[in-house]
Amino acid sequence: MPPIYARIIATGSALPERVVTNADLEKIVDTTDEWIHSRTGIRQRHIAADGETTGDLALQAAKNALEAAGVKASELDLIVLGTTTPDLIFPSTACLVQHRLGANGCAAFDVNAACSGFVYALGIADKFIRSGQSKKVLVIGAETLTRMVDWTERESCVLFGDGAGAVVLEACDEPGIYTTCLHADGGHKDLLYNPVGVSVGFTDEPNHGVRIRMSGREVFKVAVKTLDSLVEETLQAAGMQESDIDWLIPHQANLRIIEATAKRLKMSMDRVIVTVDKHANTSSGSVPLALDYAVRSGKVQRGQNLLLEAFGGGFTWASALLRY
Ligand code: UT7
Questions:
Q1: Which numbered atom of ligand 1 lies nearest the CA of 254?
Q2: What does the mean pLDDT of the chain come to?
Q3: Spacing, Cα 35 to ligand 1 middle (Å)
Q4: Is residue 207 predicted with pLDDT exceeding 70?
Q5: Ligand 1 interacting residues, C-beta cut-off 6 A
């Protein structure tokens, strides 16, 4: 039997209509556009409207991707959705999206790997396709992270945004995805977490304590170091070198972290997709939003090699090296 590969046949994305600029945030917390932009690269973020959910954004991104792929929802045999802000505790957001798409019957589940959620979901979907279990798979990364932001805390509220991205994968006899690398280390939990879950800290009080807690400077240091070794590992696993990569499509948390990874890869910034200025950190939404932007703007072309990477709470970190 010849090997089976998973190939991205189309991408899609969705952003809430409301845009909040750094100047808007200057009015509610003690911050400046200059501080936010120079420390993070962020200029603005999209924020979900009241009642607009992660599932709504995921659905729109999925419809975009399916339309671009020319694939009907009924043809899907798996939906994997990365999120850390699901609509409900259960059913999974993947199930809610599956029903709204009319893809009933196929397997559907969420993956919670914080900001690495989409790349984790892509890695899992790749294994389903390689094993012959699935032929057409929808992979989504979607978040409404601003719902758990403390708007009085300037250290974190300026960093996040809402959004979703999706890809349709198909079984193919040529790559496709060459390799994915998924990792976690729960030992750093206290550096980046939300203290409220179901069996810890749960109360009937609306939004009680549901807030992102982050030690930014420490997370920054670990992220740069970890991504450095992740790209090394990924290149080795695929049997490639830096010069084989056409585009770096990184997690969009901080432009300085992105620049450090680009430097490690000896890539000039014009081969790096940057959307952090427009979207801020959308967690699981960030990599597929950047990928969809890169495809639809005509930057990324068929046949090019893309390196996707992400780092987030857990800690989790993950990469995918693929031919688009
Ligand atoms: O996606 C998951 C992974 N997350 C990340 O990768 C985030 C990683 N961390 C970061 O991106 C950066 O650490 C931050 C952007 C969060 C912070 O940047 P920094 O350069 O590490 O700043 P800092 O935390 O060291 O703070 C420097 C100063 C402090 O004041 P003092 O102590 O020097 O007087 C802060 O109080 O900046 C102050 N500060 C602010 N000033 C204006 C913190 N937030 C703000 C703000 N506006 N919004």
A1: 11
A2: 96
A3: 9
A4: no
A5: 31, 35-36, 39-40, 115, 154-155, 158, 216-217, 219-220, 223, 253-254, 257, 281, 311-312
| Model pLDDT for residues 214-227, shown as the tens digit of each residue | 999 999 999 999 99
Domain 5-174: CATH architecture, name and number where available? 3-Layer(aba) Sandwich (3.40)
Q: Between β-strands 44-47 and 18-21, what pairing exists: parallel, antiparallel or unpaired?
A: antiparallel
Residue nearest ligand 1's atom 22 by CA = 217
pLDDT recorded at residue 2: 84
pLDDT at position 205 is 76
Catalytic residue check, 251: yes
Could you please state the CATH topology (level 3) that the domain comprising 178-323 is classified under.
Peroxisomal Thiolase; Chain A, domain 1 (3.40.47)
% of the chain at pLDDT higher than 70? 99
Active site residue 281: yes
What pTM was computed for the model? Answer: 0.97
Domain ranges of the chain: 5-174, 178-323
How far, in Å, from the CA of 220 to the mean position of ligand 1? 9
Q: 178-323: same fold as 5-174? A: yes
